[in-house]
Amino acid sequence: xxxxxxxxxxxxxxxxxxxxxxxxxxxxxxxxxxxxxxxxxxxxxxxxxxxxxxxxxxxxxxxxxxxxxxxxxxxxxxxxxxxxxxxxxxxxxxxxxxxxxxxxxxxxxxxxxx
Amino acid sequence: xxxxxxxxxxxxxxxxxxxxxxxxxxxxxxxxxxxxxxxxxxxxxxxxxxxxxxxxxxxxxxxxxxxxxxxxxxxxxxxxxxxxxxxxxxxxxxxxxxxxxxxxxxxx
Lengths: 114, 108
What we know:
Chain A has 114 residues and is an all-beta fold.
């Protein structure tokens, strides 16, 4: 009963480094998304995907790339890390609205850029 | 445009007192409204949804379409209710929008 799995849980990066946050879900959900959570800002959508091969930008996409080669995986790439990207990142997935189910979150990835 | 507004960033109540976390939304279609809770350093988890009309952990929320509100209420707050609460809206395109969250502290 894994649900949404994110790795790593904690990461420290130097400015300019690149890295990938991994996200996988085993619920066969079509919709996956990445959020960042910052104090006083709530959850802000970075990128999302409505299915394999389809991605789109959210509210704060700059500095991040995503891909969706399979239904299960939705990695988030930081191309050149900046201190402003220090945040907690949450991956989420949800089925189609008609299923009656809601959105499920991973445990979060705490990223610090120094 | 901000679809979900939570006007209170911080809210403190005494144990046993009633608590109300406010949420207003802006959406012309038929939204689904949710409340999510995040306990310290844990993932967000669903607390309740308007279509279920249920009470979870003593919390209830009624969708008021006239006032476009979905306030979360509990008659007697408990210390374990201290957490961050997010109101969320799902539009007809399956897109979720979250408010900025309200951090609730229940004082013993």
